[in-house]
Amino acid sequence: MGKDKRTDYEKALHIASVMPRFYLGQEVQTKDGKGIIVNIEMEWNGLYISPERSRAVVWYSTSDEQNRWVNASYGLSELNVV
Q: Cα-flanking dihedrals φ and ψ of residue 62, to 5°?
């Protein structure tokens, strides 16, 4: 098995091309139900694409007037595009 001769940029571009696309405001399915992505957190300000360490905060609607803002943080691999 030979040494990977791609640059860091080429490696990151490959990772980005095969991973699902997520964006703010996107509806996603999680283990807890459907929600909307309100924040995406990447290490190193996105300098390195590392989906296994990136997280998304997902907001869920609730009819409970006392607790109208329910959100949870998930790894990108835990999300499915609706």
A: -145, 150
DSSP state of 24: T
pTM over the 0.85 mark: no
Q: What are residue 35's DSSP bridge partners?
A: 28
pLDDT tens string 34-56: 999 999 988 765 556 677 788 99
Query: How far is 53 from 24, CA to CA, in rounded Å?
Result: 18
For residues 4 and 30, what is the distance between their CA atoms, to the nearest angstrom? 35
CB 41 within 8 A of CB 24: no
Q: Could you tell me which residues are beta bridge partners of residue 65?
A: none
Q: Burial of 58 by CB count in 10 Å (0-12 exposed, 13-18 middle, 19+ buried)?
A: buried
Instruction: Kindly report the length of the chain.
Output: 82
